[in-house]
């Protein structure tokens, strides 16, 4: 069969030959890679005898110094710094409630809680004195350390044309301002301790909130007069008529005002300051109005004990002879009711003895260290 002439002269070639694209430059031929020259073996150094490695020495770990960056919240930075300070020097946490009848040693045992070294180094007790117990106890029994006991009067007298002697709203605010001042003192002395390794002189060791029953009355009167506007002063809102108008949920106003002081005291405790809340006992009655003997309870807001780390009751025992007659000897005891910082069961501690010869003050040395453990029974 004769050809058409279309494939005449075609020669087969090996490889893949695509027709070049029009206008494209021809690709350069790949260059042949040069073979690497054979490497000459390096002369080996003479083997040296291995020296035994010394045992690693233990190095004490040191935490890096705290340096708050520009991006850190300054409040959080101060919180971290305070926590590191407390980790170094905090040994005990004292937020103690003390309740008892008058003249049972409540205030006296707290004002007697400074050691001789603390007195010499400028430790102070700030006593927020609602019922004058601090001034009289200091004058009668603590003249040797009078400079270390700072008695603060929270009451604001009403000098205007008023039938009520005290300005309750101003007294409330002045009390909170005192607690804020205590917190500022606490932060300053903690910073000083962090820098110098010791406390400044003077420094705040203890805050005594003496008169939680008065504080409860102040906060309730402020609620009735200022918050709910049920009357013009404390006398106008003291009766049953004003109380019945309060309503169930409005009592939270009093609770919020009252807890403001407890929260401030709790933060002082967190910062290393010993805090005490003192109040009197209130009697209990049955449905017919008869007093229930031995059923007394602390006269503070019922939620107070939720803030407390320790609870102590003071009590009096009058000695009698074999005929049942009083001998004139009276002993005052402190009884530990609750102690969150220890699992040891509570007992009683003898605070003082009154007798015809003048009596003896024993105090409670454990309070100087913030310790509340008492062996079973009396001591």
Question: How would you portray this structure in words?
Answer:
- By secondary structure, the protein is α/β, with parallel strands linked by helices.
- The chain has nine helices and eleven strands.
- Strands 3-2-4-5-1-8-9-10-11 form a nine-stranded mixed beta sheet, sandwiched between helices. A two-stranded antiparallel ribbon has the order 6-7.
**Mean pLDDT across every amino acid position:** 84
For this structure, the CATH topology of one domain is Rossmann fold
Largest sheet, described in full? 9 strands, mixed
Oligomer: single chain
Give me the Rg, rounded: 40 Å
Give the helix tally. Answer: 9
CATH class of one domain: Alpha Beta
The CATH level-2 architecture of one domain is identified as 3-Layer(aba) Sandwich
- Give the CA-based shape: globular
**Strand arrangement across the biggest beta sheet:** 3-2-4-5-1-8-9-10-11
Annotation keywords:
379 residues, 9-stranded mixed sheet, alpha/beta, two-stranded antiparallel sheet, globular, single chain, Rossmann fold
Structure summary:
The protein is α/β, with parallel strands linked by helices. It is 29% helix and 20% strand. The N and C termini lie far apart (137 Å).
Write the layout of secondary structure elements.
Elements: H1 74-89, E1 95-99, H2 106-111, H3 116-120, E2 123-129, H4 133-141, E3 149-152, H5 168-196, E4 203-210, H6 212-227, H7 240-244, H8 251-270, E5 274-279, E6 281-285, E7 291-298, E8 310-320, E9 326-339, E10 348-354, E11 360-361, H9 366-369
Parallel strand pairs: 1-5, 1-8, 2-3, 2-4, 4-5
Antiparallel strand pairs: 6-7, 8-9, 9-10, 10-11
Helix pairs in contact: 1-5, 5-6, 5-8, 6-8
């Amino acid at each position: 069969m004769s050809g058409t002439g279309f494939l005449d002269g075609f020669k087969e070639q090996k490889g893949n030959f695509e027709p070049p694209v029009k206008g494209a430059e021809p690709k350069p031929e790949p260059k042949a890679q040069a073979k690497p020259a054979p490497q000459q073996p390096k002369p080996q150094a003479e083997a040296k005898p291995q020296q035994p490695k010394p045992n690693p020495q233990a190095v004490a770990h040191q935490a890096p110094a705290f340096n708050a960056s520009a991006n850190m919240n300054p409040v959080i930075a101060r919180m971290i710094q305070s926590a590191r300070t407390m980790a170094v020097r905090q040994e005990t946490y004292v937020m103690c409630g003390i309740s008892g009848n008058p003249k049972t040693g409540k205030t006296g045992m707290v004002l007697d809680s400074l050691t001789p070294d603390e007195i010499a180094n400028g430790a102070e007790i700030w006593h927020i004195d609602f019922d004058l117990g601090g001034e009289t106890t200091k004058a009668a029994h603590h003249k040797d350390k009078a400079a270390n006991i700072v008695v603060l009067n929270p009451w604001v007298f009403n000098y205007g044309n008023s039938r009520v002697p005290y300005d309750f709203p101003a007294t409330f605010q002045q009390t909170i301002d005192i607690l804020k001042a205590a917190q500022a003192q606490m932060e300053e002395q903690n910073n000083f301790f962090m820098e110098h390794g010791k406390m400044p002189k003077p420094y705040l060791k203890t805050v005594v909130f003496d008169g939680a029953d008065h504080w409860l009355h102040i906060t309730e009167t402020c609620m009735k007069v200022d918050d709910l506007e049920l009357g013009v002063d404390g006398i106008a809102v003291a009766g049953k008529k004003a109380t019945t108008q309060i309503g169930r949920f409005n009592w939270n106003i009093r609770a919020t005002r009252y807890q403001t002081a407890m929260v401030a005291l709790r933060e002082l405790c967190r910062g290393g300051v010993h805090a005490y809340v003192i109040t009197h006992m209130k009697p209990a009655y049955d449905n017919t109005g008869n007093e229930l003997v031995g059923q007394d309870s602390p006269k503070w807001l019922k939620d107070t004990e939720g803030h407390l780390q320790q609870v102590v009751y003071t009590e009096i025992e009058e000695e009698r002879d074999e005929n049942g007659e009083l001998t004139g000897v009276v002993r005052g005891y402190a009884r530990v009711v609750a102690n969150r910082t220890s699992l040891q069961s509570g007992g009683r501690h003898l605070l003082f003895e009154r007798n015809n010869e003048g009596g003896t003050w024993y105090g409670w040395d454990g309070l100087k260290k913030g310790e509340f453990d008492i062996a079973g029974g009396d001591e």
